[in-house]
Please model this.
Amino acid sequence: MPRRSPRRVVLSVLAILACVGIALVSVTDPYAGATASSFYRQPALVKPQAVQRYAIDGGFVLVELRRDRFTAEVVGADGIAAPSGPVAPASTAQAYAAGIVAQHGWAAGEFGCLVNLWNRESGWNAHAANPSGAYGIPQALPGSKMGAAGGDWQNDYRVQIRWGVGYIAGRYGSPCGAWAHSQAVGSY
Model:
């Protein structure tokens, strides 16, 4: 039997997760805004490990879980930790998001769906504004809804990510469910 490359295995897993996400979307009435019963929601696929590795552009994020807290470190392809500054680059926001995904107990493929979704929505820009009134990394409409997750929702990528992941979990069950809906409809 020929051996499959790790990249091919990851792509196969992502394809399966996308199909599961499409199935989840099919049990949701997108016009009424009602979500399916929790009976139909996708369960956590894996139990979080002590350290998880998530791929991002130009490197990866290492997330270490400890009880109800996590640490996330962005590491470049060269193995050197990336600096973070006052203006959060996409890699810093993605590192934080990887920790939130790990806390939810979702599989690593869910993080890939989240990256794809928010690359499309905002490019991981905490100040992304849409003429419709949508704002921030998750493009909340109106942006002020994110105030429920913290005070400085206009600038703080962590507040925006916490709110966005909570919205995705409640509405679509997982980032891959939201990504599948976005692929089918053009937004989430």
The first strand starts at residue 51 and ends at 56. The two ends are 41 Å apart (CA to CA).
